[in-house]
């Protein structure tokens, strides 16, 4: 059981790190615009393509699910 808890903490830390990186890339793009560089502009294009492909309802549903998970995790502790 202890290994499962360690794996859960490590995976959750990785999710937080990658989410923070994504938010940082979006922030840099908002600051610099098209002059931010090819990598950042490409990432923003991919995010836009993903958002268009999934649709508004799916994104709203995912945000609701993520909010519920975070709320329930905070309520436990």
Descriptive account of the structure:
With 77 residues, the protein is mainly alpha-helical. The chain has one domain (2-76). It contains three helices and no strands. The two termini are 19 Å apart.
Main attributes of the structure:
single chain; mainly alpha; 90% helix
Task: Summarize the helix and strand pattern as letters.
Answer: HHH
- How many structural domains? 1
Overall pLDDT: 89
Biggest β-sheet, characterized? none
As a whole number of angstroms, the C-alpha radius of gyration is 16 Å
How many distinct helices? Answer: 3
How much of the sequence is in beta strands?
under 5%
The residue ranges in which pLDDT falls below 50 over 5 or more consecutive positions are none
Number of beta-strand segments: 0
Give me the secondary-structure category. Answer: mainly alpha
Distance between the termini: 19 Å
Helix content: over 70%
Shape: extended
Secondary structure layout plus pairing:
Layout: H1 2-32, H2 38-54, H3 56-76
Helix pairs in contact: 1-2
